[in-house]
């Protein structure tokens, strides 16, 4: 079969993955993530990253609450993915419970969270951010949790790394396959699919900006 024919039969989820892969690699190759995965990031730097995650997921899960009954976005919303309680538990362990009410996002995180909140009136945009965050968490994110646990001496799945533990999704692969099937079945016309794809790329770029700002604030140990 020709490459042209292959392109015709490529599913939307496959197209999303292929078009976003360069930015996915760029995000994973940032100095901050390289230092984190190499065991060279300070505990304070790790705590700062978890703090940024809290603001991003508070925005995402706030929008999700209003999307439960939406015909397009509703099928993607599930409590099995909820991360905010785990993030708050992790931060209470890392910074102390009294620190939770005084946390502030970085400027890049604020822009990221604001962009997510803007999708409250756009189901496709919400799905784009939902896909970018949660499918990443269920893929490479699980490996990050293992390395972070070892680096900072946390019990696997315990306080400090609860964000990386999806207790209600014991088998990520079937969950991700079903998620991608929902992406492929979503009733978007070609123009809307392009808008959704562009928003996925925007989500990656916003995330890269957060990592860049974190790297400036917390240079890795040499």
Automatic annotation (TrEMBL):
Superkingdom of origin: Bacteria
Gene3D superfamilies attached to this UniProt entry: Heme oxygenase-like
Single annotated GO MF: heme oxygenase (decyclizing) activity
Residues noted as binding heme b in the record, renumbered to the chain: 17, 24, 131, 180
GO biological process, one term: response to oxidative stress
Sequence intervals crossing the membrane: none
Keyword Oxidoreductase annotated: no
Keyword annotations of the record: Heme, Iron, Metal-binding
Record has Iron as a keyword: yes
Protein name: Biliverdin-producing heme oxygenase
Native organism: Jiangella asiatica
């Amino acid at each position: 079969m020709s490459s042209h024919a292959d392109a015709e039969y490529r599913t939307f989820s496959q197209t999303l993955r292929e078009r976003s892969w360069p930015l996915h690699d760029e995000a994973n190759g940032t100095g901050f993530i390289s230092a984190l995965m190499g065991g060279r990031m300070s505990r304070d730097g790790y705590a700062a990253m978890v703090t940024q995650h809290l603001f991003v997921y508070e925005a995402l899960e706030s929008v999700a609450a209003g999307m439960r009954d939406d015909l397009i976005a509703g099928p993607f919303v599930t409590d099995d993915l909820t991360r905010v309680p785990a993030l708050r538990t992790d931060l209470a362990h890392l910074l102390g419970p009294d620190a939770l009410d005084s946390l502030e996002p970085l400027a890049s995180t604020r822009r990221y969270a604001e962009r997510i909140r803007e999708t409250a009136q756009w189901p496709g945009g919400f799905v784009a951010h939902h896909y970018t965050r949660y499918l990443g968490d269920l893929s490479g994110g699980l490996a990050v949790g293992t390395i972070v646990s070892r680096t900072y001496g946390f019990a696997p799945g315990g306080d400090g790394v609860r964000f990386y533990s999806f207790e209600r999704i014991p088998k990520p692969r079937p969950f991700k396959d079903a998620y991608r099937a929902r992406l492929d079945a979503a009733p978007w016309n070609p123009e809307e699919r392009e808008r959704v794809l562009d928003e996925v790329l925007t989500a990656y770029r916003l995330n890269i900006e957060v990592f860049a700002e974190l790297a400036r604030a917390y240079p890795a140990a040499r």
